[in-house]
Write a structure and sequence with these properties.
Elements: E1 6-8, E2 14-16, E3 20-25, H1 29-40, E4 49-51, E5 56-58, H2 61-74, E6 76-81, H3 82-93
Antiparallel strand pairs: 1-2, 3-6, 4-5
Bound molecules: zinc ion.
Zinc ion binds at residues 23-24, 85, 88-89.
Amino acid sequence: MQPDGTILADDGRCYKRNEVEVHHEGKSFKDILEGFLRQEGLRLEDIKLEDIGEGYRLADRGLAQKWREFHRKHAHLLILPRRLHLEKHGQKQK
Ligand SMILES: [Zn+2]
């Protein structure tokens, strides 16, 4: 997040928050989540979520911390403007 409220995207340019999307490069979110559940010996239904108004978070904050670290290690996230994001997915389907 830049001081003027724009976001520095991975193409090296700044965009407004509503112009960018997060792209999961490499493993999909689902694969990462499944790996995490396996590591922790949990099933998806064991994980409790709490409503924090603008979304949900893990009710178990210790687990949430582990999840953040696991996700950071395994996910390669790119912040891209919508146009580039669509291009990325278009290329994948060819
Ligand atoms: Zn994507």
